[in-house]
Design a protein that fits this description.
Elements (H helix, E strand, L loop, with lengths): L15 H4 L7 H9 L2 E5 L10 E8 L2 E6 L4 E5 L9 E6 L8 E4 L2 E5 L4 E5 L9 E4 L14 E3 L8 E5 L14 E5 L5 E6 L4 E6 L5 E5 L8 E5 L21 H6 L15 H7 L8 E3 L13 E6 L12 E5 L4 E10 L2 E10 L6 E6 L5 E6 L11 E8 L7 E7 L2 E6 L5 H4 L6 E7 L9 E5 L3 E6 L5 E6 L6 E6 L15 E6 L6
Antiparallel strand pairs: 1-24, 2-3, 3-4, 4-5, 6-7, 7-8, 8-9, 10-11, 11-12, 12-13, 14-15, 15-16, 16-17, 18-19, 19-20, 20-21, 21-32, 22-23, 23-24, 25-26, 26-30, 27-28, 27-31, 29-30, 31-32
Length: 507
């Protein structure tokens, strides 16, 4: 289903059974258990203001800029106090769907629907005085899907933008369905085509650029996708700009090459990538609910990482928002054969609205900005600004999952019990993939049930090597660990993991 956090959608909403499917055990029990490790604090928002989520950006250690869908920017001081008592002031208004905020040298850079705008308060009265367009605006034609997500500054001082397709199906305005890079001088450079309907844009700990895209045509499920120059990231709608007179010279000057051919509808990404070397498979799929089983959600959104140990044992992992289900997920990436891939895990439920924009604060607490605009959100409130604080208590979780030629290695946040962990019946595994097609989304297809041949627990109890009778290229490998216990006898807080395996290591 299409993620539309901003605007009226196709005229229907998620079925109630999807929005309110129970979590493992019970939702209430899970929230209580999660709260022992990660508390959620709700910040009061400006009274009488509809603060539907757009973007977040810290301007100082305890000063937060918040952009709203309707085009306002508010600044709050004192966002780290407990109990929460932020002091709000409206900084700017009259903008257009701000879905990116960055800050540099006293300027706020706001990614609007049609441009990046530099904004400054010159007289220090708390209100913006100067508005300047950075470079040239990009084209829009009024279609309500034509939003743009913007990034923070990358290691080279550039900003990145991903442009949603027209109607989320086609590219009717220049560079719709592309990722762009905007230099300090405002010069925009096309980077790659294949974007469909982005939900977030940012970087991993290494500074590499990723975005999230949502299920729909040519996207069998929501995904986390790296952006690399001269690669094609999946949706062919934007490929037309390689040939259009208005852009052909610009694309060539950027050193980009049109893919040879177009993908075959009804195929699989792993098969088409072998025929089209430019096609870059997703790093992560976020599996949809299937057969009535809740999985990782419906509408993948913004993400961020914390580079210290102050948010618990998940240093440098990505925390990813889920808009429809009002959750935050956790992603551990690795590089296999030069490509990013990895696993997604549940992290925290119980947010008040759909989790769209995420940002870590100076104290390593996680700010989550929500909206239910477009799709409904499980949280039930139209908008929310919340803060996740680690209590200092380490949860018993799967820490990471790494691919091996004949299976996977799991690491854990606490030592595991060798007896339960080494028993194959403590583990469950299945695999599946998605149809790569022009039709909307995909069911799970090509399912397999690999047999667990053996499980070897490391002497320190912090990892386990799981050998399967087969691993499957291009498949999500879904694991559940209902029987695994910690050395203290505790079950995992979340016992599921979903690894997207496009590349099998040689050793």
């Amino acid at each position: 289903m299409k993620f539309l956090p901003l605007i009226a959608t196709l005229g229907f909403v998620l079925p109630a059974v999807w929005l309110h499917a129970a979590s493992p055990a019970s939702s209430a029990d899970l929230k209580t258990a999660e709260a022992e490790h990660y508390r959620i604090l709700t910040l009061p928002t400006p009274e009488g203001v509809t603060l539907e989520a757009g973007a977040l950006c810290f301007l100082g250690p305890d000063r937060l800029a918040v952009a709203s869908r309707i085009g306002d920017i508010w600044i709050a001081d004192g966002v780290l106090t407990e109990p929460p008592a932020p002091r709000w002031k409206q900084f700017a208004s009259g903008l257009h769907e701000v879905l990116g905020l960055a800050f540099k040298d006293g300027w706020i850079y706001a990614t609007q629907r049609g441009e990046i705008t530099k904004i400054k308060d010159e007289d220090s009265d708390g209100r913006a005085d100067v508005f300047e367009t950075l470079g040239d605006p990009w084209s829009i034609n009024g279609d309500y899907h034509e939003y743009a997500f913007g990034s923070k500054f990358d290691r080279n001082g550039d900003l990145w933008v991903v442009l949603c397709l027209t109607g989320s199906f086609n590219s009717e305005s220049k560079y719709r369905g592309w990722a762009m890079k905007i230099g300090p001088d405002g010069k925009a450079t096309p980077v790659c085509a294949g974007v469909r309907s982005p939900g977030g844009l940012g970087f991993n700990a290494e500074g590499d650029v990723f975005y999230t895209d949502n299920q729909g045509p040519w996207n069998g499920a929501c995904k986390l996708q790296q952006l690399l120059p001269d690669k094609f990231v999946g949706h062919p709608g934007g490929l037309k700009w390689f040939d259009e007179a208005a852009t052909k010279e610009e694309v060539a000057k950027a050193g980009l090459h049109q893919p040879a051919g177009t993908p075959e509808s009804g195929s699989r990404v792993s098969l088409e990538a072998k025929k089209m070397p430019e096609l870059l498979p997703p790093s992560i799929y976020f599996p949809y609910p299937a057969a009535g089983k809740p999985k990782m959600g419906h509408s993948t959104a913004g993400f961020c990482f914390e580079s210290s140990d102050r948010f618990g044992p998940f240093k440098n992992q990505l925390f990813v928002g889920e808009q429809s289900d009002s959750t935050v997920m956790r992603v551990a990436l690795e590089k296999v054969n030069g490509h990013y891939q990895g696993a997604v895990f549940p992290f925290r439920t119980g947010f008040d609205s759909g989790c769209l924009a995420l940002e870590f604060a100076s104290d390593a607490s996680l700010f989550v900005y929500g909206t239910d605009r477009g799709w409904g959100a499980r949280g039930g409130k139209p908008f929310a600004l919340q803060r996740v604080v680690w209590t200092g208590k380490v949860p018993f979780e799967i820490h990471e999952m790494r691919a091996r030629p004949d299976g996977f290695e799991f690491t854990f946040t606490e030592p595991i019990d060798p007896k339960t962990a080494s028993a194959p019946e403590s583990w469950e595994v299945e695999t599946y993939t998605y149809i790569y097609q022009s039709s909307y989304g995909s069911p799970e297809v090509d399912g397999t049930k690999p047999a667990i041949q053996n499980v070897t627990v490391a002497p320190d109890g912090k990892s386990a090597r799981v050998v399967l009778d087969a691993v499957h290229e291009g498949h999500v490998h879904e694991f559940h660990l209902p029987g695994v216990r910690s050395a203290k006898g505790a079950p995992l807080l979340h016992d599921s993991a979903y690894y997207t395996l496009f590349y099998i290591p040689q050793s």
